[in-house]
Structures are given as structure tokens and as C-alpha cells.
Amino acid sequence: MRASLLQVAVNEGESVESRRRRVAALVREQAGVDLVVLPELWTTGAFAHEDFAREAEPLHGPTFEAMAEAARDAGVWLHAGSVPERAAVGEGSTGGDGALYNTSLVLSPTGDLAAAYRKIHRFGFDRGEAVLMSAGDELVTVPLPHTTLGVATCYDLRFPELFRGLVDAGAETLVVPAGWPERRRAHWTLLARARAVENQAYVLACGTAGTHAGVPQAGHSIVVDPWGEVLAEAGPGEQVLTVDFDPALVAKTREQFPALKDRVLGLDRPHR
Length: 272
Known about the structure:
hydrolase activity; hydrolase; C-N_Hydrolase_sf; UPF0012_CS; C-N_Hydrolase
């Protein structure tokens, strides 16, 4: 398979609509690639909290429409990153106006919505995303012709139990769009490799470049194989990172080094 991670720069001064058009053009340029991945909240910026409610859109809103057309034109599977989703009225925890979610969209080569994932772990420690958005509660996998995607988002990367759940659901390629800050870039690469090694799966982690609401972004999108080897890594700026990988290596790795079979489940809490 061939995948392209589009490390989009998100900077002040570019409108959301202008960025949608620019990103759609980038997606169309990936014709011939099997899978294209975009970052988290690339329409607004992951730290532009004041823009979440203003730019929130329904699941099949303008970002979906633009990305669906681009995916069709390019003939690619597209993980369209995530958008601030405004749910139906009364859904979720915020009441009458409809809850906000950080929602990832996965589109088929025909432009159909194959899956949507509402981010489970919201970042902010009782501020920002953690209070402005509701939490999802469902793990999402997406069967592709040659692999099964497991979908997570940014801060989810710090919670290995989520990825164990995805693997148990059949995931072989873990896709993680993010708006990860530069000041914690070392954690980004470390955790991406750890999730690959412990789950014996590919990790495709796509971040943003630029600065969101004064927060410099890490960039350094990364593709890691099931042995933890880095197949490709971007720099700090806007970049298209394209890599070939062999989905069959997942099964081979799990057969050659069957660590997942030795998991011990249902351990009791220690007695005090």
C-alpha cells in the first residue's frame, strides 16, 4: 500500500474556506495513492478553542462535502482528519443547541462516509477541548481492501488501552491525526513507536504544522512499522509525507513474535 500524510500548516490569516479549498487540491494531487491522511482539526486549529463553536458543522457539512469530492476525484481512501462537529439538537451533554464533538471522518474512494469517530480522550485538564466538547464512547475500525484501520485522535495516543481495544476489534493499521504541540514533540514520536510495538501494528500519525492560537505545532508526522521501525518522518513545516508499506507484515510479525497471545486479562486490583 501507499499512504500520503498531509501535514497541513494551520496559521492565522487563512480563512477556513480558503484552507478547505487548498487541502482539497492537495488531496486531488494524491491520485494513485491508496490512503490519504489529514491532521486533527485542520479547519480551525486544535488550540483555537474560541473557533470551535463558530466553525462547528454537521457530520455531512461543508468539510465533508469538499473532502468527499476530492476523494472521488483522486480515487483514494481518505481519512479527512477531524472537524468540530455540531451534533443534532438534544444529543450529547451540552443541551438544546446540540453537543460539540471532535469528529474524524473516513471517506471511501467513491466519496461515501465509511466511518466517523468522535474523540474519546479530550485534552485540556478541565479547560479548552475538555470542557467545550463532548466525549465519544465508541471504538471505530474501518476495513480497507488490504488492511483494517483503527481510528484514534491526538491525545488518545497517551492511552494504550484504547489501542488494545482497536486491535481486539481487528485493527492492523492505527491512524492518528493530531494537532500536537512542539513543546511535547519528543512524546509524539515516542508514543507513536510504543503503540506500534506493543500492538504489532502500523502507526500512521499525521500532525499539523504552523501555529494554532499562539501554540507552535510539532509537525513531524511519522509512519512506524509493527517492529517499531520508523519508515518515514516529516520535518516541522507543511509537507506531504508519502510512504509504501506492506500490510502483510502485521500478520507475519504477530506470528513470528506472538506476544499478543500472552496478554493476561481481567486482573484484579491489588488488595490493600
